[in-house]
Queue: 4 jobs
Job 1
Amino acid sequence: MSQAVSPLAPKRYPRMPDVEGVRIATAEAGIKYRGRRDLMVMVFDEGTEVSGVFTRSRCPSAPVEFCRANLPGGRARILVVNSGNANAFTGRKGREATAMTAAAAARAAGASESTVFLASTGVIGEPLEAGKFAHLLDGMVARAMPHGWEEAARAIMTTDTYPKYLTATARLGEAEVVINGIAKGAGMIAPDMATMLSFVATDAPIAAPVLQALLSRGTQPSFNAITVDSDTSTSDTLMLFATGKAAQRGAPRITDVRDPRLVPFRRALNRLLKQLALQVVRDGEGARKQVEVTVTGAKSSRSAKRIALAIANSPLVKTAIAGEDANWGRVVMAVGKAGEPAERDRLAIWFGDIRVAHEGERDPDYSEEQASAYMRREEIAIRVDLGLGRGRATVWTCDLTKEYVAINGDYRS
Amino acid sequence: MSQAVSPLAPKRYPRMPDVEGVRIATAEAGIKYRGRRDLMVMVFDEGTEVSGVFTRSRCPSAPVEFCRANLPGGRARILVVNSGNANAFTGRKGREATAMTAAAAARAAGASESTVFLASTGVIGEPLEAGKFAHLLDGMVARAMPHGWEEAARAIMTTDTYPKYLTATARLGEAEVVINGIAKGAGMIAPDMATMLSFVATDAPIAAPVLQALLSRGTQPSFNAITVDSDTSTSDTLMLFATGKAAQRGAPRITDVRDPRLVPFRRALNRLLKQLALQVVRDGEGARKQVEVTVTGAKSSRSAKRIALAIANSPLVKTAIAGEDANWGRVVMAVGKAGEPAERDRLAIWFGDIRVAHEGERDPDYSEEQASAYMRREEIAIRVDLGLGRGRATVWTCDLTKEYVAINGDYRS
């Protein structure tokens, strides 16, 4: 499972500030991996509000069901995340494991079980032995510290080749608030949500229903617009925690999503979510190129997104990109198979700024050398204009390489 | 592009009998390939009736549009197929090429242009120069012979590693009738229809509307139940020709699809279509294993088919099979992402006869060694029971190997 770090890994990482009201600890629980931390705890001060979005899989993991049940309460005191085992498709044993972990976490944090949140990522179908790590939670909560975001990002990795974390600031009223986020995910990444865990925390005083509205909206052009392999995980989890500590520095409490003071925060949050989502795509299993697919001129934005995803998920488009070939014929094929309104003789296709097809034919002026040179880049942009309406959408994916097959097929050999 | 022959190629081929009323010729037109035949003509005696089903792509090729326009006439005198160029996304030039080919073919066969049918397979977006081969048609019609089905199957190949042809017989009234079929296709294979061409001819006297009903029904559990890579071609064409010559041997003319005398013919046709479709899957690009996915206990057959396709198209399921790993967790994932009714705690999954999961958990009695031994076979059967209803469906696919990526990504290097 040891892969070289993705060539698309960030060249530099931000220094992560503290988020007042959040403390972090990690540990080596030996759940599956040896010699690395695989357990992470985030402890939140009293008053922390929470929102979340989860996988749409019909076969969700036990922790996803556990979180869904606690979410309506809107309060969080502790988050426990393990890597190495997804606690998915584990039946009664899975529910016993979440119950045992939640009880130990609540005891450790001195809080109600209704304020505990859990996430697990790793192998599906293997019972998670919570007994192996539940006894560690007491000590972890006791030694949890405000720093440690980088370690937290590392502890939740599975096939990721690099840790994913980002920070942002925004004005809220007269105060400056912090937003920190971590994410993991590399394969089984598809809308909606993918084998993706992401946890974002802020010190802004924002009420849970507002957080939920921000998050549900914000995932559409970020985590719901990325795909690595069209495979959706049983465990996808994105949560947003707000400790409210910035109120002490004069930040106003926001209880209405239409509050104009929320605008800069929303913008900063959306940018952070998009950047975290792109970090996941750029660590797509075997990825060597980031691919942005934009569809314009569709009948509707929904239609544009479906066509964009048909292109982004096409194995033939993705292998052509891996082969650095501007094979726009395969883009035509993918548009045609999407089942959405499209008229062949109105199609135009660009690779970067190079228009390769126009009005249903190869662009007579297009230079294959120029296109080939473009395809050697690390970031490829494909645009398709349908010429039918005003719908548009952008999604992101990566190329499909032999390494993807090796990572997902050779792991037993 | 030279690949070794698929390990799943047929061990032996049938000797193809003649179909009375059908004559065949092939030629080297040099459309793209050198040193091989790339043009095929089938000439039909007067009175031949025809039916067809075509790609559902919104960007169909020029020959598909041409055939669709002629099909309501129900009569066929000549079929012209070229490989090396799909004449797809070629705009006005594409329509000029079909018009020129059709005119030359009609002249050569001494028939109306409304009885000409065309198919092209190969590169998309490259103008097809019909002038390169239209002049050959006269000579080909003149020398066309009743035998030559094997050569015909070879002339229409693109990335196929072996020719695909089959024959069957059936009783029709007191007479025995022949059904011969050829097919091509290896990649861009997905429901519905895929980069797949298939031409089936019989001497049975069956009216065009009955042929159409038989074909539309017969493709559902055959060509519409296979997928190599979920990518649907712009050019998929399946046609069924009936010369009616068996009437001279006493076969009754069939004008009603409910005619009980049609039953053995329908059965033989359906078996032939299914076997041809499986030959396409077994030549899937890079394939080393044939995979049958059966879903039972679904709310409806439609729902069962969608779930079966979600499993068969999942890159993670397909790479696990390539890696000979009974990774049923990925099957659970694929069931979950299909968006169809499913209850995690009722799921059961088998690899062959080995039940690996039961009531939402790993089957406690399942032996990993036994499952691993099973996965080393050449033909893998996966069954999922949803425990919800009586809907069932079976689809076929192949594994996803590094060779698939090499074939589709390395072709320029």
Note: Chain B has two domains: 22-282, 290-409.
Job 2
Amino acid sequence: MIFQVEMDVRIPHDLPAETANALKAAERERAQELQRAGIWRHLWRHAGRYANTSVFDVESPQALHDILSGLPLFPFMDVKVTALCRHPSSVRDDDR
Amino acid sequence: MIFQVEMDVRIPHDLPAETANALKAAERERAQELQRAGIWRHLWRHAGRYANTSVFDVESPQALHDILSGLPLFPFMDVKVTALCRHPSSVRDDDR
Amino acid sequence: MIFQVEMDVRIPHDLPAETANALKAAERERAQELQRAGIWRHLWRHAGRYANTSVFDVESPQALHDILSGLPLFPFMDVKVTALCRHPSSVRDDDR
Amino acid sequence: MIFQVEMDVRIPHDLPAETANALKAAERERAQELQRAGIWRHLWRHAGRYANTSVFDVESPQALHDILSGLPLFPFMDVKVTALCRHPSSVRDDDR
Amino acid sequence: MIFQVEMDVRIPHDLPAETANALKAAERERAQELQRAGIWRHLWRHAGRYANTSVFDVESPQALHDILSGLPLFPFMDVKVTALCRHPSSVRDDDR
Amino acid sequence: MIFQVEMDVRIPHDLPAETANALKAAERERAQELQRAGIWRHLWRHAGRYANTSVFDVESPQALHDILSGLPLFPFMDVKVTALCRHPSSVRDDDR
Amino acid sequence: MIFQVEMDVRIPHDLPAETANALKAAERERAQELQRAGIWRHLWRHAGRYANTSVFDVESPQALHDILSGLPLFPFMDVKVTALCRHPSSVRDDDR
Amino acid sequence: MIFQVEMDVRIPHDLPAETANALKAAERERAQELQRAGIWRHLWRHAGRYANTSVFDVESPQALHDILSGLPLFPFMDVKVTALCRHPSSVRDDDR
Amino acid sequence: MIFQVEMDVRIPHDLPAETANALKAAERERAQELQRAGIWRHLWRHAGRYANTSVFDVESPQALHDILSGLPLFPFMDVKVTALCRHPSSVRDDDR
Amino acid sequence: MIFQVEMDVRIPHDLPAETANALKAAERERAQELQRAGIWRHLWRHAGRYANTSVFDVESPQALHDILSGLPLFPFMDVKVTALCRHPSSVRDDDR
């Protein structure tokens, strides 16, 4: 099943650069791992903002939570989750 | 280039049913036409609401506007447009 | 899996009383049917408002959407859906 | 009587980890104690966010306040309280 | 126990005057009945708006709901309910 | 004349405990003084939040401002002031 | 004492023109009467909107309410009232 | 001097088509007249919405109001006005 | 021409008192200077909040910006600017 | 294609002045460079606020993102992006 997740990242300016960069690198690695696993299906950047729209394909809300709450940058995110489902006018079968 | 478009549809209760159904049928037909053309890339229903998240792949904002403002249900929609671009952590090449 | 659903009902004052009462009766019947089926797990009224908090136990967001969008009063509802999952501090096993 | 309580937890990034972990452990212990006492009836996590929806069964608003304001993480919470009551369409007797 | 209730009244301009006046008269009568019964403890008008702040002393949220949802003008109200309790700095004993 | 005042208190976590406690003690003392003087007519706690609804009986907005801005916790408050007046349906004479 | 009052006027498009014009004329007359009486001290139009900022000099919130609720266009207004008082840096004595 | 004006147009569905089309034609004519006069300096459509961002070069807020409130579609607009001025980093002299 | 300016002042609690007091003194001096010059026409305190409503009479938005951005407390203000103009029902000539 | 970008700048008071000034100087230089290149077409200051409205003429949302996210003050900005296109009533050809 699929969930739209919008993540607004706000890293406090007084977080040591070293810490911030390490978090970003770990975030990137984890995001790519999940994409290759077909879980993190889409990851788009909002033009002009440190925010993204993602679409996750997971077993359950619990699985979604475990993934998101485990992201390195999770403590610095405002997250909005929208449960999605197939639109009756969709012509695609793989767009669960 | 790609745009995230969220459409909240509110059809007034006093719109004659016949008119509403004709609009919905025309909307469905147009949406499927645009999907088959690869323009309306994704169309997901928000679970529990008469709303959707769509992703459009268009030449320009002008093209996007012509499509959206031409939709039969456009007069009854609250529309939110977010310009998207490739996320630096995305592993996909086709997710422009 | 479980979803919190908050429904704010606003029935237009110019909707014929007969129509409104028929919708309410059908809504009530459907709600009780779904509760007995264990799908509509909780249904609480917000004290002082024509609104409720419900908890649904469904197979997927799609199932949730089919149920909610099929409710007789759906056209007159503002609906807010929150995907829930087990809280790590919960002592209950049946509160999926 | 029952109250819906939504808790959004925001722990400042510059709170020493030790302090934060101690608070979380105490919070967990207190939450489980209240659940076993039948006061904290439901505790669900919002998928993807450090937030929960809870349902409390208490004697009065005063009792609710004493419980919530005594929670270890209370100083770091945005709390929204909604007084609930039995829905006329509810089929359950124990869902006070 | 006591609840703060803020009522914003919006009577549609196309509601026949006769109906509106009858509703207002019935509302007034019911409000005064409840005040004399000590249930509707305080009723203040927001200066400059068709809105009020009230304080109700009731047995439970259910009692509050039955009262508010039974008010003649209820269908035309936006209602906000806040559960109150004794403030630790209050010097009054009767201000439950 | 009377004013409804809602005070949301947010004490920064990095304010030394000693300072915070001294402020709270002074706030309590001042609040009780004003209540005994009949100025701070009502003081109710919002159940579950570090916030209150108060009703002040003062000579003028200026008097209200001098009182509120002089409260020890004023710098840590979000304050919302609503001018109240007698409701035409009120049966009380002393509820100015 | 003085109050800032912001009035947003929204006249429904299906209100007969004749009725609307009569209301506007009566509103104008009443506004000028109150200005000449020194009660409606300031009346400024928000550039580009059917809205105004006014400053009233009245005896009490009750007086303010009687004036505003008696305005012909009151039923079509969203009103925001802010109690004002003398600013400590003001050099004016007559700007109560 | 220049003002940014954002206009959100919402034409009620029950406004006769003939009336709506006449208003739109008159609006177009007036807009082009003002553009040629150098007053309506910029007029951009928000992609996907019946809304625009405009920049007006006028003598005063009063002039701006007279223009906007005289637009045929003004009664169906939500208008947001932002006073602009030269940015210290602007390299343009004519961007009043 | 005139502008309504609402200033919400939030001075961080960890700003050294000495700095804060110096800023406030400078702000007061500058405000009085501008009032005596007839530029800062009105300055009212919002009762109960560290906020004010002001009315400025300036040559242009640029002049307004230079004044406001030069205020000592500007960095700690949330500012809302509304362009005003003469109301057709105003009886005053000097209220530009 | 063109995008409206509104930037609200909030520089934390505890950011060393030296750092802040260096960022502002770099921001200014970069902004002027982009303006001279015809990319940053318009840059207006919101009168009274540390915010601007800009119009960018870029190849794609990706290009817009690279520019904005590369701005020295980007970490201290709240950014709102609106995709624009030619208004059917525009008389200008170069206002793409």
Note: Chain J touches chain B at residues 1-3, 60-62, 64-65, 81-86 (CB under 8 Å).
Job 3
Amino acid sequence: MRFFSDNAATVHPAVMEALAAANHVDTAYDGDALSQSLDRTFSDLFETSCEVVWVSTGTAANSIILAHFVRPWQGILCHEEAHIEVDECGAPTFYSGGAKLMPLPGRGAKIDIEALKTRLAGIRKDVHQVQPAAISITNATEYGLSWEPGEVGAIGEVAKAEGLKLHMDGARFANAVAYRGCSPADVTWRAGVDALSFGFTKNGAMMAEAIVFFGGSGGAGVRELKKRGGHLLSKGRFVAAQICAMLKDDLWLANARAANAGAAALAEACGDRLMHPVEANELFVRLTAAEAAQLRAAGFDFYDWGEGAARLVVSWDQDAATVAPLAAAIAAL
Amino acid sequence: MRFFSDNAATVHPAVMEALAAANHVDTAYDGDALSQSLDRTFSDLFETSCEVVWVSTGTAANSIILAHFVRPWQGILCHEEAHIEVDECGAPTFYSGGAKLMPLPGRGAKIDIEALKTRLAGIRKDVHQVQPAAISITNATEYGLSWEPGEVGAIGEVAKAEGLKLHMDGARFANAVAYRGCSPADVTWRAGVDALSFGFTKNGAMMAEAIVFFGGSGGAGVRELKKRGGHLLSKGRFVAAQICAMLKDDLWLANARAANAGAAALAEACGDRLMHPVEANELFVRLTAAEAAQLRAAGFDFYDWGEGAARLVVSWDQDAATVAPLAAAIAAL
Amino acid sequence: MRFFSDNAATVHPAVMEALAAANHVDTAYDGDALSQSLDRTFSDLFETSCEVVWVSTGTAANSIILAHFVRPWQGILCHEEAHIEVDECGAPTFYSGGAKLMPLPGRGAKIDIEALKTRLAGIRKDVHQVQPAAISITNATEYGLSWEPGEVGAIGEVAKAEGLKLHMDGARFANAVAYRGCSPADVTWRAGVDALSFGFTKNGAMMAEAIVFFGGSGGAGVRELKKRGGHLLSKGRFVAAQICAMLKDDLWLANARAANAGAAALAEACGDRLMHPVEANELFVRLTAAEAAQLRAAGFDFYDWGEGAARLVVSWDQDAATVAPLAAAIAAL
Amino acid sequence: MRFFSDNAATVHPAVMEALAAANHVDTAYDGDALSQSLDRTFSDLFETSCEVVWVSTGTAANSIILAHFVRPWQGILCHEEAHIEVDECGAPTFYSGGAKLMPLPGRGAKIDIEALKTRLAGIRKDVHQVQPAAISITNATEYGLSWEPGEVGAIGEVAKAEGLKLHMDGARFANAVAYRGCSPADVTWRAGVDALSFGFTKNGAMMAEAIVFFGGSGGAGVRELKKRGGHLLSKGRFVAAQICAMLKDDLWLANARAANAGAAALAEACGDRLMHPVEANELFVRLTAAEAAQLRAAGFDFYDWGEGAARLVVSWDQDAATVAPLAAAIAAL
């Protein structure tokens, strides 16, 4: 049974149906009706004017936004375990033409606000030192923590005071919002976020992520970055269709709630093994090598997370009922 | 009726079925069974050992191959109307970290071999001038010409003599091969081609192109370029599945033959209007503004190609029968 | 006797004295009094507010200005024989993070204004095609032609109408201005030039070029490009000192006039051999291989310029008198 | 009295004389006799075959070497306070096309060997994580520590075992070697260093640094990186002349010994105030704001180094005698 990644999960039937429904002739690239509908749909969802650009991976979404926000000689403040820092083969630096990631510490992969301020204060304002132009936070974080609107707001205030853009990597934004039960607006633009990578692939789509700029247009250059990166699919309506399907009737929320519920059920079984609170669909648990082997022998698949620890991810197509066997197996260790 | 682009065509039912069939759990990224099968499948097709990397756009395929073949301070010789030169927003320069495209003339968008030799002879071998490291040709060309194996071989010999890599942009490789009736090997590696961008999207897939390195491994760095460009889809099996479906029972050839047949039928109707021989699925025809308006009024959709000319593209889902109305309309002009 | 390049010329005694005079303690980098004086000095010379940044090579000057004017996905229109296109190993593309040089024809290496307009009209305004953001012209041109203010103004009007920045590569700006006898302002900002690479090295300095932005500040980012390119010399006062010495008492004009006078004297001897009018310090002359060999045997050193032609450059430290032997030798051929 | 930077020091008279002596006609760029002599001169000094490329700044030297050693998607391990990490505006990332600096801790700005091994062990060997390709160390370090040959050797062994290139930033290499009294070879290639940025500017030159590749040629591409970066000065003999003058009769060692002696004399006066051992020409001393103000009032100029600390740099043109007033002033605090 799979718990190693929501990247390996299936595609939701509604998304498959949407792909079939999109299989008729329409304009190429992103001139089709589905692509053209996204600005309006997201503007409704986020209760503000949005500019939306679809891409097929989260790495592309993060990189294009960040490249749009910083110049090659500037920097991007992020958590030292952020996906953009450790898992994207340097993509944001590639897209931005050389921008420097400036890693910061913080519990559960949330940037520590004091560390952020200290770092900013320590940068000499001259041409010798790289000057940051953006902050990037991840919601839910690499350790499955969901940001409270107030926490994002605190980062947003620093960003505003320093003239920095604020980006949110929302590869698991749905899980984070589902957990908080807040409005998507509260944890994004109302808290100072300028742009969001809104992920759908892990949550039931096939290859579909939305770059969302809040407050109208993101400005010139974004679509050039996308085209130049080879991300303007010629039959782009098939990406837009996935996003539309995920937003329809709040499928994105329903899927995230299912996964979160599975994670919560597992969390109960894990008890003291938990290394972080479970606020989305990921669990980080203490597990000896012997215990891990025992679970694997019983058919459960997951990642080791360094020595004596493991990561368990519950996907949208799993829920409390389907995770019961693993919960039982862990409880029985 | 659509004749403006094969990019706007539908997806073949067999590809849709393959996507549905791939909708079960498997490893993320490109570790799945379908992705892993590609090297063998293409090696069979091309009668030599191949390394294959899937991507979702032709721009990504071209750019990754070229970036792999040249260093940032080197150049890429190509036709002055090549897609990489005029239609990719500088993507090959972006991916390569700055390589210079070196455009050459030639009829029907085939590089003129004498112009190639003259250009090469004119470059001083010093650090002031950009030294080319690759040649890129397109098959079928931007004007729908299909290369004969011997013509490719002539370019291949120059490439070999000068120590240059030879890339073939095969966005419409299927149409070119279908027209020539040759072995895919004859017009690629046997003629000196080092790597091919083998396009499937225009020919019935949804978003699937294969980077094919001939003669074993393409070497270190290709997969890093792909990941860094944001092209390593997390549910990559859905791209590999499309390619597998297109190769199964030579669907790629059948689709291309259908489109070519439609183009041939149209060509007959166009007679003297043709600006180039029709050797694939594209026609470039002389058409006055009034004639173009008349055809559009009759429901036919196509691109103007400068003044007094138009481009007509027949897609895989159109054939001789379905193009009959346009053929008749043109004949009646 | 040297006629192969003004790059090989000596350094003027006044520059050597200025270096010696600068050999005392002052602030590092460009905080010293000499560096700080440049804005004012050039503002006086150009009769408008200027921001000036010193660098040590013309390639750095051109590249930093152009990188400042264009984004990586944009283009730079220039003559097909411009130094930035053929002799800088791709430096402007490197500094700009990938901008495309868009070469244009034109007699004597002056951009043909009609070719410029045609090229601009032919670019589709979409994300597929690279959109130009700057025009770069060279004065004196690669063939030693000096621009008339009105000619520059015609280019400047196109630039303004299209929203493009206009850059002038002035590696031999002194020779061009000396020939025209015009005000430096007339042939630059008054004609629409936004920034000038003002060269001093060929004209008597050791390694000193000025980036000149007209109309106040060049804007944010220039100094970062310079630092990031490794061009912020720690003992920068020694570059600024050269520039100050060259500007003092119009030494730059005196040197250029000497070289131009030498070139004019040679031109008279060359008669029908001249391939271009001589409007600066370079001559391009028809010369058979046998004639070239004969001159070389007589001790004259120069570059072949393709078959049957040669380039003769007169340097600041040569004048009408010193070129007399070559003039006589050519006349005697 | 200046103690704020050796970048502000004067140029040694022998260097000024060498510049005057080089002021005759010779080939442009780096084809002149002085430039051509460098390989041999450095090969003698380092007791092995060397390829040497002159540049005018340390940032250029570091960046070109590192860009030559790593591909854009790879990383460079360095100390978290290394000049390349904190003081070059991202130049190594710029020149390399995007390589990631991977900072490590360590006392006195020497990379901690255990931290290095731990970091290397923690990197997954996949395309998601940036793989390092080089290690860069600084000698003398940012805190004025000089490496023992054995310490370098320990890093060199790790580099060799992991297939990484080892670069030494020797902006103050002369001071480090002078302190150790070792052979230049012992602390470089014999200890595993592949290339050295050998700095002369801080030590009495005007703008001259040598890129030194040990063991024959550095390989293809270095000179293209230099040209492309705008660092191939057209009158390059004036940089080569400075280097030749610095190497003649071991002027580089004499100058470094003078500066080191001055630093040692100051160190004695500083006693317990010293934050690091003084092994070159820099001192880092505890100093209250009041004490700093008192020294400045007495005419001594230096940098604050965070709160309660200061950096004092002794230059080649200062020695034990000339630093006596500051020594006395500190002793009297």
Note: The first strand of chain A starts at residue 50 and ends at 55.
Job 4
Amino acid sequence: MNAPHLDVEQVEAANTAFYEALEEGDFEKVSEFWLTPSDLGVDESYHDPADAGVVSCVHPGWPVLTGRGEVLRSYALIMANTDYIQFFLTDVHVSVTGDTALVTCTENILSGGPAPDGGEELGPLVGQLVVATNTFRRTPAGWKLWSHHASPVLAETEDEDGEDTPP
Amino acid sequence: MNAPHLDVEQVEAANTAFYEALEEGDFEKVSEFWLTPSDLGVDESYHDPADAGVVSCVHPGWPVLTGRGEVLRSYALIMANTDYIQFFLTDVHVSVTGDTALVTCTENILSGGPAPDGGEELGPLVGQLVVATNTFRRTPAGWKLWSHHASPVLAETEDEDGEDTPP
């Protein structure tokens, strides 16, 4: 297999593994998928004017979160409020250019929070149609997430004449 | 000025200029800001398994658009339905790693469509709070957009205890 094929396979595997870590509620594993400046050989004690490797994350409907502190805290918060989550990924597209990879995909999400009465049962399950753009960076430890941006799809994707603008 | 500072300034200028081209409704200029595989020295007649430099775009509430054809058609459509648009960018953050740059920003948008009666007046102006993640790639012709993902902010960004999860 040649190098471009291999890159695409590795990036797609990293993307899938990231969502699996979310499904498992494995905070440690989720944290490991996020890039650190030291993954890039950037000295973290020095203030880098280019903020190389500084991560950002947008959850559906949320403002931008910047830096590992904010981003990882958001995942801890989401995990604390989610008892069950499953991602069915469709329309996965990978574009690799040098040491950066862009993945776009549709996250068909099924999730449920803790039962309202604190009992054994799950809260009501909710389905969500979300699209994501994930930017990965090649590191000695594999492909790591530099940015995740997810947003709700509010409009019909199919239309007879294919000309309608979503709102 | 050292190289990282210069990169950040150039990326920020490219990001600003892209939004100005949108404000001006200048379709040609908007098109020029989008990366082509040939900007990266990729032969477009050869099928590249890594789809290097293949662009993607998500407008607020829309599904993912992939490739220059779909992306540029969406801008033509939006421009045809928008008589007036202004972007007030805030919270601009740039992270440059090698030849790739990530820009996150808040797009405070004010826009209006054509008058409903086809008259001289603007349609009603609408304000929108949108956050964007823009991925730029360094090319011999300057920094070009590889990906744009914009999404509506549906929740409060400030909260007294800073602990609330947006929906």
Note: Confidence is low (pLDDT under 50) at residues 159-165 of chain A.
